[in-house]
Amino acid sequence: MxxxxxxxxxxxxxxxxxxxxxxxxxxYYRITYMRKNTMLRSFEGGVYADLEGPEIKEVIETETxxxxxxxxxxxxxxxxxxxxxxxxARYEMAQMHILEVIDQNIRDVxxxxxxxxxxxxxxxxxxxxxxxxxxxxxxxxxxxxxMPEDSGNAFEGTDDFLDYLIDWIDVYPMGGAQPRIxxxxxxxxxxxxxxxxLSGRYDSEEKVKEIMEGIFNLIITKINMPM
Length: 227
Known about the structure:
Number of helices: 9
Low-confidence stretches: none
Radius of gyration: 21 Å
Mean pLDDT: 93
Order of helices and strands: EEEEHHHHHHHHH
Number of domains: 2
Largest sheet: 4 strands, antiparallel
Structural class: alpha+beta
Shape: globular
Helix content: 40-55%
Oligomer: single chain
Number of strands: 4
């Protein structure tokens, strides 16, 4: 199958307002794929006088690889067309931490389950969103205390995801450095510690594969959400 060319051109956007500290401008990327074009602003968010300094070169190198990894996923390794619809939102979403993706998926399942439970507390439980200030175990404890007879129903369908979360936090504790979605997609950036940890914890290669594929499927579902 034919592979199509992706061009990523970094530039300073002089058409936007200058920064307060002088003649410095934000970094952008012009992306071209199969005659479709768009622009993305650097997620790093800095402003620069030129493209020559070591700091901006490092940013460009990292973000170019990130954009290439994301586009590679969206185009099935550059073999399928993509009209750039939603690319800005997907690029921003790709910066999410994988821990957040797993955690929020569990909360989404719990939220759906609570709507089906005939219990006065089911409608008032604050499921919330991923936050270090409201970790998942606090939600779990609240549900178990408020509605112990229905807590199993509230968390129905989350067992695998909870296992993913426990394994993930063992390697990347909350509050520490967290890999992003795009790091998982980018083979140049991905940290192999998680797979190494799984291989040491589980004797079965099938179990390791199941967990890796499970998390990958969560990521793909998230990044392909309708925009």
